[in-house]
Amino acid sequence: MKNVRIDRCVLVWGVVIALPALLLALVLVPWWQQLSELDTRLSRDADQLARYRALVATLPGLRAELQREQARDDFKAFYVDAATRALAGARVQSEVQDIVRDAGARPISAQVLPGLADEQPPRVRIRLQLQADTEQLLEVLYRIEQVRPFLFVEQMSVRSRVPGHLRATPRGRRQIQSVVEAGDLTVRLDIFGYTLGRGD
Q1: What are the protein's UniProt keywords (predicted)?
Q2: Which of 31, 40, 139, 180 has its CA at a distance of 20 to 30 angstroms from the CA of residue 77?
């Protein structure tokens, strides 16, 4: 009987001790896991912050280098020198229209096309429509190729305003022949150049 009483007493005390320990473990284990995850994340974020700080520390040097490069005259020969993309577009638009007139062609319209926000360096795009004959068109293209700062023809579409007419060949087959006279070509050119200004 005494042994039974002792066993019950040990069992009761075991339950009394084990129950709080179990509850404590149920609370502490998730807390410990979360604390470990936070430590890992904190360590990772600290490494990332150190890398960002190192990158930020290089910015003044990079800006100074960019300023030096932008100040070089030979470097500026490749880029349209304007404070913003809009001003660069207006400059290119005016220059291209002058090229067309100097070649004896007739500009019909010129518009600045929107650029992409993430382009580096920013690109200035112009869509130009003109009327010319073949010689004038070749002269326009030659002058665009020679101009500084550099301009590039991205797309070109040429249409003749004179419809073709049929003529008979010696074998009796009919062949389309088109006669292009002065100013009978309607040309659309998409031209672009690069600017050192901001992208807006």
Answers
A1: Membrane, Transmembrane, Transmembrane helix
A2: 139
Q: If you ran DSSP here, which 8-state letter would residue 84 be given? A: B
Q: Where are the alpha helices (DSSP H) in 72-133?
A: 73-76, 85-102
Whether the Cβ atoms of residue 81 and residue 196 lie closer than 8 Å to each other? yes
Those residues whose C-beta lies under 8 Å from the C-beta of residue 31, and which sit 6 or more positions away, are none
pLDDT tens profile 9-18: 767 677 677 7
DSSP state, 163? P
pTM over 0.90: no
Kindly state the helix (H) or strand (E) to which residue 21 belongs, with its residue range. Answer: helix 2-71
Residue 23: give the domain boundaries.
1-71
Q: What count of residues does the chain have?
A: 200
* 97 in the same domain as 117: yes
